[in-house]
């Protein structure tokens, strides 16, 4: 599975939706994912990709990890994986 | 002071997944204790317990709920659903604001702690699930019951080891009695049957490797159990006004501290709580027909408890029945008083006294009618439920038929 597919699978499970219902332009709020769901999604991403996501729940928008849309999350994971392997 | 009645009861415990099946097991003197089915059981010297077998959490809760519900919370929620459904109450407006939840537990989310210590220490993981704290906290069960039923009044958890549930129900009783609350959801829950939960108890050397035989001369210790029981304690006039079915009246409650030893029980401390509950109920000593004993099956508890009852009741101790249902469901620690209150309700309502099973040989230090091995038909009007905790904390509840 590609990073994009894996991220979508994680988000879909959290939102209790089919992966095909998750679009790249969606925000987490669009999908009904609240703050607890976000923290759980971050955890699932860290576990799946074996990365550490720089995310502080006190101020989610100020983190280096951009969670403004599914596309931005995929990009951020991709960047962390690239940094990890370099 | 207002009168307090019970208008709903629910449970899940080693004997059954509801009140009716638990009563049936009590009547049949069935044993819910057996080989433990848990991880690393081969490294335990104690390998039996009152475990709830065939329990599938996914058939009761969805994935997101399970991320937040430790096993002890699950048990509490299932028992609360039964109790509140039976009561027929719904909570909104002023009633919701004046109704709350007081639950007992000793270990809280101990299974969650056990699993995650295992992950970070044994498996060397450096990351844990984000919900460990809300899952393991002792008040999680009370909070989730409050959330699920919109109970917006006083809500908290009481942790006094083996007396937790009785202390919790005593608080609920007095809150309704004083008029502070119209309805309180109360009882207790425990889910300690995990490797660490049993290993710690093993260390005390008070556990039996084969059976819980309270009051029998052959007794050799306690056996742990798990589960929950939850009740609806309601203002009597409120219950009558809405035409509710009333199970029985909560008549009295008393608590005491031994102020002596952290584990060894005291006859005087227990006796003060027992006598206190009878006095608080405003009934005569000889009106008490049945006591659900703390009856752990340890040498120390059972003889101390019998001596305390003899001191309080004098000659009447020879005429009352006292059984320990721990012989069937094990010791549910912080949830035990709640499950044991079911035997008291059965005695009042169904006129059947639950037995002390596994009773083999009389002990002169426990010379009471312990209703050995077989349930008994008997009409009783006032019953007591004893709980005596490590730490020397005693809590006794009195119930009676509503006349």
TrEMBL record, chain A:
This is Acyl carrier protein. It comes from Yoonia maritima. The keyword Phosphoprotein applies. Keywords: Phosphopantetheine, Phosphoprotein. The keyword Phosphoprotein applies. It comes from the Bacteria. InterPro entries: ACP-like_sf (IPR036736), PP-bd_ACP (IPR009081), Ppantetheine_attach_site (IPR006162). Residues 1-81 form the Carrier domain.
